[in-house]
Every structure is written in C-alpha cells, then in structure tokens.
Amino acid sequence: MLKVILRFANLVVLTLLVLSFFSFLLAYMFPGEPLANLTGVVRGNEQQLEALGQLYHLDNNFLVQYWYYLAELFDGNWGLSFSSGLPLASEIARTLPASIELSTYALILSMFIGLPLGFIAGLRHRKTTDYALLSLSVLGYSIPVFWLAMLMILGFCLQLGWFPLSGRLSLLYEVPRISGFILLDIMWSDLENKSAILIDALRHLILPTLSIAAFTTTIILRITRRSVIETMNSDYILAALARGLTPWQILFRHGIKNALMPILPLIALQFTTLLTNAMIVEVIFSWPGIGNWLIQAIYQRDYPAIRVGMLAVSTLVVLFTMSIDLLIRLVDPKKSKVERVAI
To answer: Membrane-spanning regions, if any (predicted)?
Structure first.
C-alpha cells in the first residue's frame, strides 16, 4: 500500500511540474514581448522596464525564471488580472467553486437518472425497452452540449418563460459568500427571505445542470447496462437460479451490489468530463464560473489570467483523477488499472 501511495505521489508531482512549466512558457508563446505579457506595460520608460524585468528575473535563463515562478506560485502570489486589477488567486477562488458546484449537481442528477435506466436496460436485454433506452442514449450522446443549452434557452426561457435566462442569482438578492457554493451559502446565511432566495437560485441552476448532465447520463446508462448484463450472466447468478431463487431475490441479494462495484469508480471519473462541459455551458448561461472567466480573459487578452486559470483547471483535473485512481487501487489492490468505458 505504501508503495502505491508513493508511486502516485511521484506521478502527481511530476505531472504538476510539467503543467506548471508549460504554464510558465505561455508568457513566451503569447504574441508580443514576455514583459508586456506579464505586466501589461507596453510602453514605459527605460527605468520602469528595467525594474519590471528584474522583478520577473527576465535577465536570467529559463530555468532560473521558472524556479522563481514556482516560488511565487507556492507563495500565493499569482499576479494581477489586467482587466480587473485584482489578485488572480482571489479571482480563481471566486470562480472555481461555481464550476465545481455545477459539475457536482450534474453528476448527482446523472446518477439518479442513468443508474435506474441502466439497470432497466440491462435487465430487459435485447427487448424493446432495451432498444428504446439505447436509442435515447445515442441521441443524448450525439447532441453537442452547447447546442442543447441553446435549445433549452430558446424553449424554456424565451418561449415559455419558466426559467431565468442567465446568471446564478437574481440581482434583487445578495448572499454573503461563505463557501462559494451558492446553495450552501444561502442555507448557512441569516437572510430573512431565505426560501425565496433558495427557490431563485434553484431556478437559475436547473437549465445549466440539465445541459451538462444529459451527456453524462447517457454514459452512466451505458456503463450500468453493460455491467448489469455481465453480472446477470455470471456463474454465481446462474447457480442462484438453479437453487430456486426468484429473479427479484437474485437482483436484490446479488445483482445490484455486484453490478455497482465495478461502475462506481468509472462514474466518479466522469466528473472531469462534466467540469469540461460546464466550462462551455457557463459562457452560454453567463454562469460566473472559471470557464466563463477564462473566455472573458481570452477576449481581453488578459495573459496572466489565461495561464493561471488554465493551470488551476488542469491541476484540479489531475488531482481529482489521480485521487480516484489511488482510492480504487487501495480498495481493490487486484486491479492494476481502471477499466475502460465501453459504450
């Protein structure tokens, strides 16, 4: 167990070092001079440019500059945003929880829908119900996330007027920031009209969550269906049938538990896909997450925000994926690697 933990720790450290080095190189890959990309100062006097160059150690070689860049990252000094003038560490802390919240709720919704439908399709293998659910999953898998989001806006916002068009909360309400997760902040706050604010936040949350959950629901449905079919055709299930157990007894005593064990780790790994799709949907619904923030930074050529934002998102994805993989191997040491998803 200790060897597995150390091996994963080394892999995480090496991966993060590679990511941070590519993030450092972005200052030289963006159009323009590296000093202008880092500071936003295009035209300055000679003394000012020399002082800024010394501040960022541009007179040294790449390795020395990268070392100081790592030191600044660990100190929490990630630079300032060109557009807002605020520290990038506070900007990331403000926007990243909104994206994580949206992805988490979408994953929960996908599990509540995809798992039961996958069990139904697996138990009704090669029957009309199975073919209907497979056709529905192909449709959900094929629809682009951004197109589905725009269809929802057109139908439920503009035509029916059931849900708000954009944002995370109505401008009439103000919720003190505690955790960064809007629903938790509302429940933990001491607001007089808490129920009305909670309903308004849920109405803003429904369409973005449905937009990114549709794709993941189809993945979970197909993973569950495949696992149920393999479980119900295994030898111990056939032996239970030979002993006279009814199909329902077999399902509840053996089928559900053994079908869920191999697919739960795969479902957890879908969080990274949800986070990527959430960054796309955020732009369409003006959701104040890190995806929307990064797009605005690209439009405004806010180079420090772009490279730090990309590093923050990639670090989150690597840490989450590696943590899930490590947890799987610690729980089941026989698994040398996570199963690939067969669709």
So the answer is: 12-30, 102-121, 133-162, 205-224, 263-285, 305-328
3-state DSSP percent of the chain in helix, strand and coil, to 5: 75, 0, 25
Q: Give yes or no for a contact between 218 and 137, defined as CB atoms under 8 angstroms apart.
A: yes
What separation, in Å, do the N-terminal and C-terminal C-alpha atoms of the chain show?
32
Distances (CA, A) of 291 to 99, 148, 214, 303, 333: 7, 18, 19, 15, 36
pTM of the model: 0.81
3-state secondary structure of 80: strand
Q: Which CATH class is domain 101-285?
A: mainly alpha
Residue 48, pLDDT score? 65
pLDDT tens string 278-302: 888 988 988 888 888 888 888 888 8
pLDDT in tens, 102-113: 888 998 999 899
* Nearest-angstrom CA–CA distance, 201 and 145: 22
Contact status, residue 289 vs residue 181, Cβ threshold 8 Å: no
